[in-house]
Amino acid sequence: MSLQKCTVLYDGRALVGPENVPLIDFLETCNITLPHVCYHPALDPLQTCDVCWVEQEGKLVRGCTLRSHDGLVINSLDTQARAAREEGMDRLLAKHELYCTVCEHNTGDCTLHNTMVDMHIPIQRYPYTRKPYVKDHSNAFYTYDPDQCILCGRCVDACQNVEVNETLSIDYTMEHPRVLWDGGNQIAGSSCVSCGHCVTVCPCNALLEKSMQPDAGPFTSMRQSLKRPLIDVIKVLEKSMQPDAGPFTSMRQSLKRPLIDVIKVLENSTGAEIISGISVMDTALRQQEIKRTKTVCTYCGVGCSFEMWTRDRQLLKVQPVVDAPVNGISTCVKGKFAWDFINSPQRLTTPLIRENDRFRPASWEEALTLVASRLLQTRDQYGPDSIGFIGSSKGSNEEAYLTQKIARAIIGTNSVDNSSRYCQNPATEGLFRTVGYGGDAGTIDDLQQAELMIIVGSNTAENHPVIASRLKAAKKHHGQKWLVVDPRRHEMAERADLHLRIHPGSDLVWASAMARYMFDHGYEDAGFLAERVNQVDAYRQSLTPFTLDYAAQITGIQEETLREAAELIGKAGSVCIMWAMGITQHSHGADTSTALSNLLLVTGNYGRPGTGGYPMRGHNNVQGASDFGCLKNFYPGYESVSDPQIREKWANAWGVPAERLSLKVGQDNFMMVELARKEVIRAMYVIGEETAFSDADAENVHQGFTNLDFLVVQDLFLSRTAQFADVVLPGCPSVEKEGSFVNTERRIQRFYPVMEPLGDSRPDWWILTQLAACMGHDWGYQHPQEIMAEVAGIAEIFAGVSYSRLEGWKSQIWPINADGSSTPLLYTERFKSPDGRATLYPLSWQPPAEEADAEYDLLLNNGRMLEHFQSTNQSGQGGRTTSLSPDWFVEISPQLASARSLQEGDWVKLISRRGEVEVPVVVTDRVQGKVLFISIHQGKDGINKLTGEHHDPSVNTPAYKELAVRLETLDRPPLPDPLPKHNFRHGKRTPIDKVPVEEKWRRADYREPPATEPHPEKF
Q1: Looking at the structure, do residues 753 and 679 belong to the same domain, yes or no?
Q2: Same domain, 430 and 419
Q3: Is residue 247 predicted with pLDDT exceeding 50?
Q4: How far does Cα 618 stand from its chain's mean position?
Q5: d(CA 75, CA 53)
Q6: Which residue from 428, 464, 430 is spatially nearest to 447, judged by alpha carbons?
């Protein structure tokens, strides 16, 4: 909000408040409410509801269109303005079947109800007429009820201009306008990605979460046959209602419909204010039962935060708020809806110990005593490095810290890691080599500000959808240019100004050719290079082989297209490069990440707003797990384990002898499993990671776990990994504990306990604290804030972190100074190096370790899907997200389908050098030629039945994307619709610039308030 102040004369009162903000928001800061329904602070002024009329300079104007400034004079008490506002509300009520006390949405969050009450509407003047449409239940997560829809267009603007999925529209020229999905009447099968944004902004209950239906309130679940008469009585009585938010909302529809009719009759007799008074009391009763808790999403690394509305253990809804620092009111399908795992009957609720090859329940004391004794026994018999620890990228920062503290301070090994080994360590290595910090150069705001976004190997719309929405908005509204480099034609590629459909694994050549082109054509930032970068001449000489002609040969992209890409980069005033697993999961991912950072340095695109390198983090706390020490070579804050002075500092802080802390770099995930197979690693402790499913070459992984003397798994479910365990400890999801996460932009945020732990499960920080005590180290932590305070007192980059500074919606971005100030944009004055300068890092081209050949003639690309997450242990619970694409399938190109005589749904066997899987085919132009695509989520052993041991030698990240296969057709009946017809990928978007309110105004039967309206129910 603006820091400048101005004075507005409102109804004769001089009000002082922020300058150049919407009038409605200005008045809110002065504790004045101007009635409004369609206005939302996160949306454009829609001008559809006609409820916010005021008088300005002798004319009636809609208040939502005005912004505060000195000298603004407004009169809301004007007779015509007041009449216009009441006429606007009357028209809304003509479109909305108002029955609040049996409405699921009557929880205090209904803008229509609250505004009607505030305006003291005496009676519903225009009779309500039902619309010729039925309620749409076709989506797995929310419903659309045309009889409740007031046609305000909030949902349309949210979809078109904030989420920018461009699915929803309203055609005000229709005989009976309604919200449309891809121009049609049904949600299922449209391009709707179920982000829930439309539901969040709906000002009534036209769009409503299914989790709010039918028992959000005492009466909401009654049968419709009873409810309908009661509603109609309430219709006559009151004006507001639906299932699952209040006392009456959960009654069956057979009861509810009569109840609604009765209420409407009473309303006509008594006036609406008596009935609305009842609904206000109902709201108050419901609010006493509903708990609202801020939390941070437990899925991808974007770091969305929101409120969870719960009644006991029932999650009513996820409600984003404008104050959320990363996402505002945006969500994706998983963040908004994929929380069924919280109450899953599959949750682990008690410790388990394996006896006679079966698990039996155990007490915490027995389980932790056994774990402590076996780990200490293994350490004493085989040495500290015989034990490996894998920390959780879904657990909290505090839990990551305790994991590495046990490994280092008690066991004496640096063999501790997290799942960043499987995805982002190559990117981190590339940043260490060139600019110094292992994190994004700036924030999501910088991504939006960039003149040119280069998106490489990142299906952002599906893997980081809220960031994708921010970028789509920047492109749609501000003309941001996109260069997308990817073998697959996903949504980001479809929207790109230029899409380079590159041969998989050849990105280093493309990026290096671009850097040479910058030097050769005068696009390098000579001043920046001279002042702030080392090894410029050596790097430039290393680029000699990387001509456009050479790049065209290796990448498969025409030279002219490469030149077009180079010109885009060279002429752009600010450039950000975003990359993800399409780059990092190759045998030379660290080198390619380095090449991308080199390109940014050559063009001077670091240290300014709208510039920098941005490797996207895949799990909610994969950044934090690394930041807080779950890495083989770093203490928390990226302080080297090999530096004797650093060791001395941490030993003193922890109160242990310096000799206890090893100076030797430990083993990582990849090598731990390999050494377990060779019986060098004898015991492992795995927290919240599905290593048996996620690590490459599943057969070797399973053999390694089988060979271990002792394995502890701490998780929410009896995962594939837990099935190999000797002891299983039931941890808690984030909603059952307190802590903090770090998102992809280095932002630290707190989350709070939404509900109590299920059964005898316990927060991971509690488990680790108790385990340490059983091993003779009673650290005595009573709350995660004590753990964070300890870290802040030791690690330099966290010096100013504290729970008080993270209270509520506040956040901090590391490095954090002792005074608590953040560093949103890195490298503005210095790079992270001894001399403060960046380094251009010479590279040479090395081909992928595995390529297609005569026997294995196809390349099997693989990655994530929007609706699933990793092994689906969380997202697959309850079946709702899974229903969008329940079957595993492989995407093949139309060219390959034609050549192999394959049709949609035909079964094939994919055979690699390691194993084979059987899947149906989906024929799509998302892939091209002999490059296939398969998701990483499904299948008993999944894609890693096929992947191999080849890996990046710099960081040991498996080369998941370098996978050659051959395809055999199976004689089996086809699977109908392997990608179901209701899946959003079949939809056809209908983009528009804004809600077309002018269409309404141009209708022959539209009358501008305060004039009465002949057909208020229609528009």
Answers
A1: yes
A2: no
A3: no
A4: 9
A5: 10
A6: 464
- CATH number, domain of 542, equals 3.40.228.10
Tell me the C-alpha distance between 115 and 454, whole Å.
Answer: 45
Residue 345: asked if its preceding bond is cis (omega within 30°), the reply is no
Q: Please state, in angstroms and rounded to a whole number, the distance separating the CA atoms of residues 171 and 613.
A: 42
Q: In angstroms, rounded to a whole number, what is the distance separating the alpha carbons of residues 388 and 684?
A: 5
Query: Contact, 136 vs 187, CB < 8 A?
Result: yes
Three-point CA angle 854, 856, 858, nearest 5°: 105
Token readout for 896 is 């390959």
Residue whose structure tokens are 């104050």: 323
- Please name the helix (run of DSSP H) or strand (run of DSSP E) that holds residue 228, with its range, or none: helix 224-237
CA atoms of 58 and 876, how far apart (whole Å):
59
- Split into its structural domains, the chain has a count of 4
The pLDDT score that the predictor gives to residue 279 is 80
Q: Which two tokens stand for residue 442?
A: 């700036």
Find the domain containing 667 and state its range.
Answer: 352-423+621-821
- The SS3 assignment for 428 reads helix
Query: Cα(709)–Cα(477) distance, rounded to whole angstroms?
Result: 59
Bridge-based pairing state of the strands 481-485 and 739-742: unpaired
User: Cβ(81)–Cβ(53) under 8 Å?
Assistant: yes
- SS3 percent helix, strand, coil of the chain, rounded to 5, is 35, 15, 50
* Cβ–Cβ < 8 Å for 811, 748: yes
Q: How many residues does the chain have?
A: 1019
**Which tokens is 434 given?**
């060139």
Instruction: List, for residues 669-718, the tens digit of each pLDDT value.
Output: 999 999 999 999 999 999 999 999 999 999 999 999 999 999 999 999 99
Res. 224: pLDDT tops 70: no
In this structure, are 382 and 529 located in the same domain?
Answer: no
- Residue 833 covered by a domain: no
Per the CB < 8 A criterion, the answer to whether 259 and 282 are in contact is no
Last residue of a domain, one of 615, 630, 664: 615
Residues 473, 532, single domain; the answer is yes
Angle, helices 507-520 vs 559-571, to 10°: value is 60
Q: How far is CA 36 from the centre of its chain?
A: 31
Mean pLDDT of 813-817: 98
Tokens matching residue 173? 């020229």
Q: In CATH, what number is assigned to the domain containing residue 775?
A: 3.40.50.740
Q: Are 515 and 529 in contact (CB under 8 A)?
A: no
226 within a domain of the structure (yes/no): no
pLDDT tens, position by position, 499-540: 999 999 999 999 999 999 999 999 999 999 999 999 999 999
Per DSSP, helices labelled H in 136-183 are: 154-157
Neighbours of 865 (CB within 10 A): 19
Whether residues 783 and 882 share a domain: the answer is: no
Question: Judging by DSSP bridges, how do beta strands 452-456 and 481-485 pair with one another?
Answer: parallel
- Cβ neighbors of 104 (< 8 A, separation 6 or more) are 205, 208, 212, 213, 214, 216, 217, 220, 241, 242, 243, 244, 245, 246, 249, 250
Q: Which two tokens stand for residue 788?
A: 């964070």
Whole-number Å distance between alpha carbons of 908 and 897: 11
In a domain, 415, yes or no: yes
How far apart are alpha carbons 432 and 303 in whole angstroms?
23
C-alpha to C-alpha distances, 302 to 431, 576, 901, nearest whole angstrom: 19, 17, 42
- With cut-offs at 50, 70 and 90, classify the pLDDT of residue 228: low
682 belongs to a structural domain: yes
- Segment (H or E) for 565: helix 559-571
- Which amino acid belongs to residue 956? N
Reported as a single tens digit per residue, the pLDDT across 730-749 is 999 999 999 999 999 999 99
Decide if 397 contacts 784 (C-beta within 8 A): no
Contact (Cβ atoms closer than 8 angstroms) between residue 616 and residue 837: no
Token code pair at residue 560 = 């002219």
Q: Is the pTM of this model over 0.85?
A: yes
Spatial strand order in the sheet of 710-715: 358-361, 352-355, 727-730, 710-715, 683-687, 387-390, 416-417
